[in-house]
Amino acid sequence: MAESMFSEISTTDLVTQISRQITEAIVTGRLKPGARLTELQLSREFGTSRAPVREAARLLESQGLVVFSPRRGFFVRTLTAVDLRDIYELRIGLELHAASLALERIGQAEVAGLERQIEKLYRLADAGSAESQIFEDFAFHRMLCAASHNARLVKVYDELATEMRAGITLIGKLYDDPHRIAKTHEPIVAALKRSDRKELLGALRDHITVAQEAVVALFHGIEKDATDAQNGPIWHCG
Fold it and tell me: What is the third-level CATH fold of 14-76?
């Protein structure tokens, strides 16, 4: 590469630091699906030996962000429409459970934090900052999961969010109107404030399902375009 994508790191906890930097490069789109993770090149950029780079790649493989090909090495995973459908189905189940717990455990400060997060989504919509809005959208849902006061649940959400961010970054945005992203969060907080379980779960399911349908449809389109480009034009005689 013409310029370094990564910065040198300290000698403590090398594997974690390397994996974090590579993860950030993937979810922000700087490392594209299918990109090869070359151990020698990465070790030079990080200022380490190849061993911690290899361990970091194995860690990311276990998290579903990279894949290993024998005799070829590690590559950034290419998500499919089916992958995204499955991830969103798991996310729906996870967040509905988190919301149910949050109804019993959430505090006023946490509700106020969710409201401020919606305001931030509107400000980013006004500024036209799609990438930042995607990040803060996931932050809202993480805050909702955190309101369940279940640390393991939040850990699973973080793993799902990393995969979803990588996919959504690839397609750029979900809605033509970025203000719609902010607006669709409002019924969730309104139901929380009223302690209305049925309304809360319905609003949350609708919100995530709309995103799921949009993402899966866009990925189907990407896959179709890739297949058409690979097959080339079809000529008919007659």
Answer: Arc Repressor Mutant, subunit A (1.10.10)
Alpha helices (H) along 63-196:
81-105, 108-127, 130-146, 151-171, 179-183, 186-194
pTM of the model: 0.81
Residue 96 has pLDDT above 70, yes or no: yes
> Does the structure show a pLDDT above 60 at 235?
no
Residue 116 burial (CB count, 10 A): 12
Note whether 114 and 144 are within 8 A (CB): yes
In three-state secondary structure terms, 202 is helix
Q: Across the chain, which distance is largest between two alpha carbons, in Å?
A: 73
Fold of 81-219: Four Helix Bundle (Hemerythrin (Met), subunit A) (1.20.120)
Dist CA 71 CA 116 (whole Å): 50
Tokens of 54: 């290899």
The contacts of residue 76 (CB under 8 Å, 6+ apart) are: 26, 31, 32, 33, 34, 35, 37, 65, 66
In contact, 76 and 47? CB cutoff 8 Å: no
47: left (phi over 0), alpha (psi -120 to 50) or beta: left
* Average confidence (pLDDT) over 88-96: 96
